[in-house]
Amino acid sequence: MTTGELEGAGEPGRIGERLNEILASLGEKALEPALAARFGAYAALLVRWNARMNLTAVRDEEGTLRRHFVESIACARLLPSEIPSLLDFGSGAGLPGIPIALCRGEIAVTLAESQGKKAAFLHEAARVLDLKVRVHGGRAELMGEHFGCVTLRAVDRMGDAVRVASGLVANGGWLSLLTTVSDESSIRNWAEGAFEWSPAVVLPGASERILLLGRRPIVPRGTIQPRSEP
User: Fold this and answer.
1) Quick check: pTM over 0.85?
2) pLDDT of 230 strictly over 60
3) Which long-range contacts (CB under 8 A, 24 or more apart) does 109-112 make?
């Protein structure tokens, strides 16, 4: 289904309208109708797959919009403008990577997910939404690449994940973490002083949930940078 066909059409249109109602209630800017409908199609697909496999703990439509989509849309809007490429580390159901790809089409997004069934969902979501994202069905650290931004949200063994993800951030790039107030100090320690951190931003609708952005300082070419170990 094309973007034009999605706009205001059936179930995706209805879900997109509900998403915009939630955004407005939280003081957030509404999405354009066509984009809201694409989020509606994504939500419908996610709820349908969640009925068969464990993609996310939140399984209903309203919870998906409030808990997952609002937070991910806020993240997409808060990311710096100059990011050329982004890795969603341990993408799972595509959060926040797919919302970032939907909202920020200028960013080349890679979704990395080592679990085969979840990677299959990401491929299907990219097809249904006609997204030009890359899906890597394996461990992100084996890709041998660096990215302008690496983002993490609700991954297992967060400390280990932060250490590995830190090593995938390009010179001058960003680490973007959707986390909790209580984990903020631990995350800064896990990143081992490799980043200059911006003040944490409270995410809409959840006083304990924050977006933590850290930038790797630009190191002159030829300087040896310390590597974060898994």
Assistant:
1) yes
2) no
3) 109/85, 109/133, 109/134, 110/85, 110/86, 110/134, 110/135, 110/136, 110/143, 110/147, 111/135, 111/136, 112/87, 112/88, 112/136, 112/138, 112/139, 112/140, 112/143
Pick the CATH number of 3-215 from 1.10.10.10, 3.30.420.150, 3.40.50.150, 3.90.650.10: 3.40.50.150
Is residue 1 pLDDT above 80, yes or no? no
Report the distance separating Cα 52 and Cα 153, nearest Å. 22
CA distance 125 to 131: 8
- Tell me the per-residue pLDDT of 186-223, one tens digit each, with 9 for 90 and over: 988 898 889 999 999 999 988 899 999 999 998 776 65
Query: Between 158 and 139, whose confidence is greater?
Result: 139
For residue 45, give the DSSP letter. H
